[in-house]
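Consider today's protein:

***
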Amino acid sequence: MNQTETFRDWLFRYRYVYRSRSTDKSKQRFLKALIADIIPFRKDLQVIEYDHTKKNASRNLYVGDLTKAKRIICTYYDTPPQHFGDYHFFDRQEQGRRTNQFILTASAVMILFGLLGTWLYIHFASGRFPLLSWQTALFALGVGIYFLLLNRVSRGAGFEQNLTRNTSSILALLSLISQNNQTATAFAFLDEGSFGERGLEVLRDSVGPNAKIYYLDSIGADAPIRAIGKQFNEGQLQQLAIEHSSEVMGSINYLFCAEKQQDQTYVLPRKQLKQKELNSRNMQKVLALFG
């Protein structure tokens, strides 16, 4: 396949087949598929496990030697939980509040539906059907589906629409990997990026002291592409019409798509979070910047 066909294949599979990346099982399925897609271009892959519990563990996938690489381009791969309103960059507290509001509200609605369904069954259906009948089997199936949905809603899983956040950044990294096999550049796919910076912290502990880290987020959105950090090439940013702010955000350089509010905060509106097509122009800017 040529590059265009390969990208279309990646887009389909990571948008539909591997779009759910919230449970330990779904994350492992995603990582296996990702490794299979990277192997034709790079063989120096490594999966790092951390924060083990009895049931699961967090995992980062590294491409290249982090201790020798001069720059590391990374993004997170776990599916963000559902939340109310816009996505607020760099404000974990506000984003957590909106996520908790969604989970509590959606869970309450699901419980009310469950109580209503139970009341209707007791008053209109209980005792009318034999125990071994298709009606009873249908009711049992409905109960099973209900608890499955309740479990998903209580975790903020809902129905994932994560093409923008953050499948687009995963696809950008795949494209960069397919075009760049230089050992001076390494790549990282980070776990636990939707809830915090744990995956990023583990990455920082693994890189060389002079390495530059570039963090991608929602770069396929229909919003202005922005750069924050002091280690970007100013001339390249101007040439690509990427708005740059040199404010200090720790040792990380951020590249993301967002609207800038009057209070100088960055948000990605709900409309862009649900968009169904990638902004190819922004994607190409990322490839040109790091290619």
Remarks:
- The mean pLDDT is 86.
